[in-house]
Amino acid sequence: MVRLLLGRLAGLVAVLVAISVMVFVIFNVIPGGDPALRLAGRHPTQQNIRQIRHDWGFDQPLYTQYFDMMNHLFIERDLISYQDQTPVLPAIRRGIPRTLSLAIGAALIWMIFGITIGVLSGLYQGRWLDRVLTVVALAGVSIPIFWLGAVLLYLLTYKYHSWPVFSWIPPGGYVPFTQDPAGWATHLFLPWITLAVVSIGFYARVVRNSLLDTRHQDYVRTAKAKGLSPSRVLVRHTLRTCLIPVVTLFGLDFGAVVGGTVILIEPIFGLEGVGQYAQESVAHLDLPPLMALTLYGAFFVVFFNMLADLTYLWLDPRSRTT
């Protein structure tokens, strides 16, 4: 266990270094990636451009610029945006609670409903309930989340907002949990549903297929032969094993949601989290916030993948000896 943890931590550092180098090089070679031209304004002179490159250090070798950026990001912690010359790290810290609130709430929804639908579909294989749940799951997987978010926002906060059942749903924005827990939940209700729908269908299919494979294993038949109740066989033997692929997927998906998928959701609902900040930075090819946000996303992907591996070892003791 300790060796796995140390190996994952070393891998995390290696991944962050590799990604930071790739992002820095790509944004320095793509057309329009020269930050001096954007800082100089619409009609700059060559003298102005040369002066900006000298003042900002853009005339230094790329490796010098890279280490200088890493120094400002991790040591001095005063990285400045090229676009509006504002500090990057305070903007990210301000957006992290909003993004994590969105991701954690959506993850709870898709895990609870995905596992429940998958188990019911597997237990009633071939029956009408299985067919209905399969159609619902496939429909959820097929819907683009940015389209779903826009449609739900229009229908529930504008067209049918006067209906009492929908009147409590606010049209976007964010309220801190410490300020108003009820307002926090109501403002995030639609983003949670939007982000969770696709994963509910996907996880339901994974759980269903895993359950169908697991229920025919020898140890499950042995548990039934011992006279254990069907509910105990399901919870203690079948479900614990079929959750192993779900845990692996969740480690990757949750990290990807926090580090990237929220870009599609936050601007629709005006959450002003890390995802919306990333979208604005991409639109302006603003390298400093993009560098910090890319490393932030990569950290979450690797970190939650490591947690998934540790959970996998707990669920399946056989893997501890490999």
Structure description:
The chain has 13 helices and no strands. It is mainly alpha-helical and 322 residues long. It has two domains: 87 residues, no CATH class; 231 residues, MetI-like (MetI-like fold, Orthogonal Bundle), CATH 1.10.3720.10. It is globular and about 85 Å long. The mean pLDDT is 85.
Characteristic key phrases:
mainly alpha; MetI-like fold; 322 residues; globular
Average pLDDT over all residues: 85
- Principal-axis shape equals globular
In this structure, how is the largest beta sheet organized? none
Which class of secondary structure composition applies to the elements?
A: mainly alpha
Percent of residues in beta strands = under 5%
CATH C-level class of the largest domain = Mainly Alpha
Q: Alpha-carbon distance between the termini?
A: 11 Å
CATH architecture of the largest domain: Orthogonal Bundle
Please indicate the count of domains.
Answer: 2
Uncertain runs: none
CATH superfamily of the largest domain: MetI-like
